[in-house]
Amino acid sequence: MQIRTRLTLLFLLLSACILAAVLFGVHWLFKKNTEETFFQGLDSKIELTAQTVLTNENALRPLAHDWIAPEGDTLPFRENITVFDNSYTRVFSMRLGAVPVSFNDLEEIYQKGETRFKHFNLLALGKKINTQAAQYVVVAEGYCDPVEVENLRNILIYSFLIGMVLVALSGWYYAGKVLQPMSQIVNEVERIQPSDLSRRVATSGSHDELARMAETFNNLLDRVEQAFQMQRMFVSNVSHELKNPLTAIRAQLDVTLQRERAPEAYRKALQSVLEDITDLTETEQKLLQLARLYNSPQNIEFSPTRLDELLWQAVEQLKKQHPDYQSSIEFGEMPETEEGLLISGSEPLLRLALLNLMNNACKYSPDKSVRIHAIFKPNGAHIIEVIDNGPGIPEAEHALIFEPFYRSARHLTVKGTGIGLSLVKSILTLHQIELSVENPSNGGTVFRLIFP
Ligand code: ADP
Questions:
Q1: Which residue has the higher pLDDT, 255 or 188?
Q2: CA 135 to centroid of chain Cα atoms
């Protein structure tokens, strides 16, 4: 069922309940009021009878109990006033032929002093009247014409039906009007294609729910567009990164094969090709890690890892890969227990991140050295600083260096892929480790890691 129909039906049901309750109340009050007025009339008649008939008590005589309807009389549907003495004997009646009041009703009037009751289809009021000499029961009864109440009931029923038709029409109209911006948003979103992600849903500028929904859609589109752009950039950068070494390999092989050469020349050419292939493999490994971090971070397993061991392992690996690089580790105050050194994380990834930072530090420093400073905190917010004596990183590049494939124009002659720091950033973000860069006043660069 469409929301518009559902809203209209809901509105109709609600209005029907409220209107029916109000109209029913009006009908009930009117009926009650009419009866009240009628009983007030009967009461006046009783008072009048008491003042006229009961002033001359000696003249009151028992009347015949049996009644005979006179010719053409429509009894008992007639008004009547009857007086009974304390032995329930009828001593006065305006209509001799009227059906007398039952013994039970008289008994009740005597006990309660005043009772309203129904006598056939007549409404009756009975009252106990005390005179100086005796007690009497005076009963006044009459036909309360229901025509006014019935008329009102019919008017109310018609009003209810007309009201419901109006409510259904207006509900349908307003539900359509309220939902119109929503349909507009749906139409606009449907028009957005992957080839044109710059389109956005029009926002009304108000602060209502629909404006918020449009804004949410736009925010989602911002993120989708960003992701698409990232992906496009990634693909074009990857192909560029692969193209350059492949072109170089091809050119070297072409040149080498152009003529017959000495074995030494072949060896040199193959050595150079091997180096290019090693670089390519390294790039491919980094890309694979980056893709894994982007695509399925939830599959990466965390385990308790000793931070000091991690640093030693990274330093060792650096030494193995680049025997000419120098590294040193300074530990601040060591924790008392081994638990104080433990962090939760993926050991291979954290080692890779530290290795990349150390590698860069040595690569970009003239003295090819890196200094690690580790400060252990009792609350686990350990700090690791990777310090070098290199040229430093200009402030303007601080945000850029973590973008995939970003390489500073100052270092284009240095071998590199531009993936290292983005990989470091992704790994540290996954571990909720804060990473910042600083250029100390005495030169060089400090990469600071603050553990959660
Ligand atoms: P790559 O080193 O392969 O170029 P990275 O992502 O590791 O890629 O680094 C990005 C850029 O950040 C580098 O091109 C370099 O300009 C700069 N950079 C990284 N580390 C340092 C450092 N320790 N000192 C100076 N510049 C650095």
A1: 255
A2: 76
Supply the pTM of this predicted model: 0.57
Q: Are 426 and 362 in contact (CB under 8 A)?
A: no
428 CB under 6 A from ligand 1? no
What is the number of the ligand 1 atom nearest to the C-alpha of 417? Answer: 3
On the question of pLDDT at 39 being above 80, the answer is yes
Pairing state between β 326-331 and 369-375 = parallel
| Both tokens assigned to 88 | 């329930």
Per-residue pLDDT at 68 exceeds 70? no
Nearest CA to ligand 1 atom 15: 408
User: Of 413, 401, 420, 271, nearest to 360 (Cα)?
Assistant: 420
Q: 392: CA distance to ligand 1 center in Å?
A: 10
Euclidean distance between CA atoms 446 and 436, whole angstroms:
8
Q: Tell me the H-state helices in 258-325.
A: 263-295, 307-321
Unique residue bearing structure tokens 């400060």: 375
Cβ contacts of 100 within 8 Å, gap of 6 or more: 65, 67, 82, 90, 93
Q: Give the integer Cα–Cα distance in Å for 421 and 153.
A: 84
Q: Is 408 near ligand 1, meaning CB less than 6 Å away?
A: yes
Find out whether 371 and 362 touch, Cβ atoms under 8 Å: no
DSSP 3-state of 118: strand
Q: Is the dihedral of CA 294, 295, 301, 302 positive or negative?
A: positive
- Min mean pLDDT across 124-128, 206-210, 393-397, 438-442 is at 206-210
Q: Whose CA is nearest to atom 12 of ligand 1?
A: 401
CA angle 439, 360, 358 (to 5 degrees): 95
Out of 290, 322, 370, 421, give the residue to mutate to test ligand 1, the one with the largest number of ligand atoms within 8 Å of its CB: 421
pLDDT band at residue 416, thresholds of 50, 70 and 90?
Answer: confident
Strands 326-331 and 445-450: what pairing?
A: unpaired
Residue closest by Cα to atom 16 of ligand 1: 408
